[in-house]
Structures are given as C-alpha cells and as structure tokens.
Amino acid sequence: MKNSMKPKTWVRVVNAILAMAVVAVVLGNYARAVKAVELERASLGLEAEWIGGHAKQIKSVTPGGPADRAGLRAGDVLRFGPNRESDWVLVGYRNMPEGFSAPLPVRHADGSTSTVTLVPDSVAYLPTLND
C-alpha cells in the first residue's frame, strides 16, 4: 500500500522557495523601515527627569553632545512651554525635521536663567516594541 500522506519532493522544494521569498520580502522591508526611522530619531545628549508638569531636570550631559555644546550641565532645569510646539518636539527627541533647532528657557543650577538653543544630533537605532 502506498503512503499518500508523505509530501512529494517537488512540494517540499516549492514550499522552501516560497518560505525564502517571504523571508526576503520581510527582511527587505525591515531594512528600509529602519533606515527611514533613523532619520526621525535624534538625541540631545542628556538624561533628565520630569519635575512638575513642564520642566525636566538634567541628571547628566554627554560630553560633546548637543546639550554640552549649548552649555547645559547636570542640575540645570529645562522649562517647556505648554503652548510651544517646538518644545514638545524636543521632549520626544523624535520626528524632527532635518536641521531642527529650538530655543528653551533654562534655570541653571546656580540660580541664573538663560535661553539655550538645542540642535539635536541624528542617531541610528533599531525599533523596539516600545516605539
């Protein structure tokens, strides 16, 4: 009696070719998506935490990064205006057009105040489930 449940060799070959085609399409689209997303990510070169509803206190500054170039230091407080859209673009550190910059009022750790202009650096990253 012949075993009709065993797939023929040509069926296995066709299935393998289809699987490789699907993998190639997925990887090709993933690479393009990552490249497109890289252009929309930016870094201010700082770590900060929210204090109050519209301010972030800087915890650390990356040497040579945008925050360092703007003269920001740990302990400074960035004040985001609730009605200034450019401020909220900086808050998210993403979706910034090429060459984006925004002035922000800052209360320095010594008590003085000033306005700094932050020009984010583009950074590469791989998307995660949190993005």
Features:
two-stranded antiparallel sheet; 131 residues; alpha+beta; rod-shaped; five-stranded antiparallel β-sheet; single chain
Q: Structural class, from helix and strand content?
A: alpha+beta
> What is the spatial order of strands in the main beta sheet?
2-3-4-5-6
Tell me the Rg in angstroms: 25 Å
Q: The biggest beta sheet, please?
A: 5 strands, antiparallel
- Number of H/I helices: 3
What is the N-to-C order of secondary-structure elements (H for helix, E for strand)?
A: HEEEHEHEEE
Helix coverage percent? 25-40%
Question: What separation lies between the terminal Cα atoms?
Answer: 57 Å
Show unreliable segments.
none
Question: How would you describe what is shown here?
Answer:
The chain is α+β, with helices and mostly antiparallel strands and 131 residues long. 32% of the residues lie in helices and 24% in strands. The protein contains three helices and seven strands. The strands form two sheets. It has a five-stranded antiparallel sheet with strand order 2-3-4-5-6. A two-stranded antiparallel sheet has the order 1-7. The longest helix has 30 residues, at 9-38. The chain is rod-shaped, with a radius of gyration of 25 Å. It starts with 8 loop residues before the first helix and ends in a 9-residue tail after the last strand. The mean pLDDT is 78.
